[in-house]
Amino acid sequence: MLDLASSNGQVQQDQGLEDSPLTIRGLTVSYGQKPAVFSVDMTVEAGKMTAIIGPNGAGKSTMLKAALGIVSPVSGQVKVFGQPLDDKRARIAYVPQRASVDWDFPTGVIDVVLMGLYRELGLLGRLRGDHKAKAMDCLDRVGMGDFATRQIGQLSGGQQQRVFLARALAQGADLYLLDEPFAGVDAATEKAIISVLKSLREAGKTVVVVHHDLATVSDYFDNVFLINTRKVAEGTVAEAFTADTLQAAYGGRLATAQVDQLALALG
Amino acid sequence: MSGEEFVPLSLTPLLIGIFAAVACALPGNFLLLRKQALIGDAISHVVLPGIVVAFLLTGAISAAPMMLGAAGAAVVAVVLIEAIRRLGRIEPGAAMGVVFTTMFAGGVLLLEQTDTSSVHLDVEHALYGNLESLIWLDAVGWSSLLDPEALAHLPVELPRMALTLLAVSLFIAVFWRVLKISTFDEGFARTMGIRTNLLGMALVITAAVAAVAAFDAVGSIIVIAMFICPPAAARMISNQLEGQVGWSVGFAVLSATFGYVLAGYGPLWLGAQDAVSAAGMIATVSGVILAIAARFGPCRTRSGAPVGV
């Protein structure tokens, strides 16, 4: 990792900011009249896996997109490794929702992974053999090495998701942001993805996942960020993923029995 | 056909047709994949009021003011489309529909209300262009290609279209990688710092430049057809963007050449008296190529679609 403290002399106003891979302050995003995300603060802990959870339409994806500059917030501040986003884009990898792109686009699996090397290659940089080798290595890590030359339209949903993850791996980042990577994928893919994410954590990387499956939260994640337009809770799974916080985030949308069951599972 | 006949009468219109077709087909590939294919249609309509206004201001049909007026109108339209799309939060197709209908109607109204009847500016010219009249009378044969005196009297549309094609090709070549990434996955492109809005705007402006230059020489029929038909046919031949763009250039050249020859000689072969509009025939040939590709192309099924659909 880069030594941020010595690489610039700026005085940090907010204590602890420079340690966090991603901090969000007062973020408000609006599509039309009603805010999708309202005045949200988030501090992502380095080297951990954090789940962003909340009901449908709670602003999970929107918050992530605003943090990445894909949508423009109404207000708020985002710092990546203590710096403005534009200075630290090289340290971020992003996996969008699978359904956000047209998989009939005329390109092959390996080409999609190579897109992750754009910051390395630049506008006109020459694609060399070692770039292809790196992309192949990323495909192997998600178990898609045999599919390198396939047209992307021929992939199943789970395979598409793994290709997206391979592209993020090719970005060689320190902070990985994933939007619903487990949505609609087969069990084998879910296992493959979680094992890659855990290996990233072991390598000291930070992983943030927009997640919808409450049953797997405590298995997969260290930290939880609960949102329903506003922040509901933030902290370790034990602190923030409780019957009370879930009730607060989901309200009547989560059956009481389900909450009790989760509370039992949490101990 | 001998050089004495071919070079002065057919070489320049053929080359202008080919250059115009390729200059439109190149950006058309990306517009097609971005589901903005009709933007070529829109541009070729919205330039009409710009051309009329340019004529009213200068009182003459000369190339430079007309190009400027057309380009100005195209830029106004692009900005309007983007503004309506963003402010109204509606899909681009709807925004284009509103803007291009309004501007074309405005252009027709201007044409009717002002006295342009004395000059060569009418709806027919706007549709078909004047490809057949772009002849090179100073040429006496192939040797004229090396004769500076004869070259000086080349139709001005030829170097203009060649330069346009060069500029369009350069844009596509330089921005190939970012165009590919942002066309496939705009959100991801933005997270890597690619200015996708600016790039999308630059692509549309490039398409507009190609459309205006081609419109002046060959009319809007070719423009509309070439933005869509060669790229769409090529998409059904290749599953790689590189392959698609390559095939689209081939189809554009084929349409222009075959269409031009067929327009000039086809009716004679059939025993008719006159040749038909080259622009119309070129567009028709591109449509036939598209139909053949749609029936027999190897990549014509939406492989991403679920089985049985």
From TrEMBL, chain A:
Superkingdom of source: Bacteria
Keyword annotations: ATP-binding, Ion transport, Nucleotide-binding, Transport, Zinc, Zinc transport
Ranges of residues in domain ABC transporter: 22-254
MF-aspect GO terms: ATP binding
Pfam families in alphabetical order: ABC_tran
Zinc among keywords: yes
Keyword Nucleotide-binding in annotation: yes
Protein family: Belongs to the ABC transporter superfamily.
Protein name: Manganese ABC transporter ATP-binding protein
Species for this entry: Parasedimentitalea denitrificans
Automatic annotation (TrEMBL), chain B:
Gene3D superfamilies associated with the record: ABC transporter involved in vitamin B12 uptake, BtuC (1.10.3470.10)
Domain of life, per lineage: Bacteria
Keyword Repressor: no
Localization per record: Cell membrane
Transmembrane portions of the chain: 6-26, 38-57, 63-81, 93-111, 161-178, 198-215, 221-238, 245-263, 275-294
Keyword list, A-Z: Cell membrane, Membrane, Transmembrane, Transmembrane helix, Transport
Membrane topology summary: Multi-pass membrane protein
Similarity comment: Belongs to the ABC-3 integral membrane protein family.
Name of the protein: Zinc ABC transporter permease
Native source organism of the sequence: Parasedimentitalea denitrificans
